[in-house]
């Protein structure tokens, strides 16, 4: 289970002890893609290699990994961040509006149950929809993206659940593509990576923001694992900026997942 720790800025930072990940399936070639990052099809063998490296890098940072077997029925099932949101106090099973992804919520539940008691597990119910890629935690506050995958009713139910545990939430419209965390990511210590559009969001003005250049948009979705930032391979400007903030960094190649809109945070549940 994760513990709350204090950062120098006084905001609490999550310390992760576990991740859940799922190996990609061969059907990932048919994964949903907006084409926002690439028009190419993933190469399966390369994706398996990259996934293994992703897990190894996180394990090398002192985190235990539960790696689930591939699920051929669900092409996008390696993106385990979407069917659940996990906190130290509870887990929330989400409800994707996409038919090819909705069933993933039943498949993630047994893994969630290894770590959470029944009374700690909550669900977003129809007509509420949500995917975890739209949920970003800053201290004890959640920013929830309203997108094609997460609607107002999903955000309302989510707020009702997390408020039981002392968290607050507010919504942010996602107008550029798939999920909130494709366009804004909280690195902890008051630092954010943002798109030019997210840079204008009034609620984000209190943060130290780096506007990621449009040719490096994919690198916004970097991932803080206990103080080390994983940055996707191939984005030198973002990498230099993250280094200049003083974080240790690890570069991870996620090119095959990028072809179907997947990035670093999507590939794990962290707690
Ligand atoms: C989808 O469109 O659902 C997948 N191809 C990509 C999901 C990426 N997930 C995430 O950003 N949390």
Keywords:
single chain, 271 residues, alpha/beta, 3-stranded mixed beta sheet, 6 helices, 17 strands, 26% strand, disordered N terminus, binds citrulline
Please tell me about this protein's structure:
With 271 residues, the chain is an alpha/beta fold. It has helices at 44-60, 99-102, 104-113, 152-163, 236-244, 255-258, and strands at 3-6, 12-15, 18-22, 64-68, 84-86, 91-93, 121-123, 135-138, 141-146, 168-173, 184-188, 191-194, 208-211, 223-225, 228-232, 249-252, 269-270. The strands form six sheets. The chain has a three-stranded mixed beta sheet, with helices on one face. Strand 1 (3-6) and strand 2 (12-15) form a beta hairpin. It starts with a strand and ends with a strand. Residues 1-10 have low confidence and may be disordered. The protein binds citrulline. Citrulline is lined by residues 31-33, 76, 79, 81-82, 101, 132-133, 178-179, 260-263, 266.
**Content-based structural category:** alpha/beta
Shape: globular
Q: Give the distinct bound molecules.
A: citrulline
Low-confidence stretches: 1-10
**What is the straight-line distance between the termini?**
6 Å
Query: What is the number of strand segments?
Result: 17
Mean of pLDDT: 95
Spatial strand order of the main sheet = 4-3-17
Radius of gyration, rounded? 17 Å
What order do the helices and strands follow?
EEEHEEEHHEEEHEEEEEEHEHE
Q: Estimate the helix proportion, in percent.
A: 10-25%
User: Major β-sheet, in short?
Assistant: 3 strands, mixed
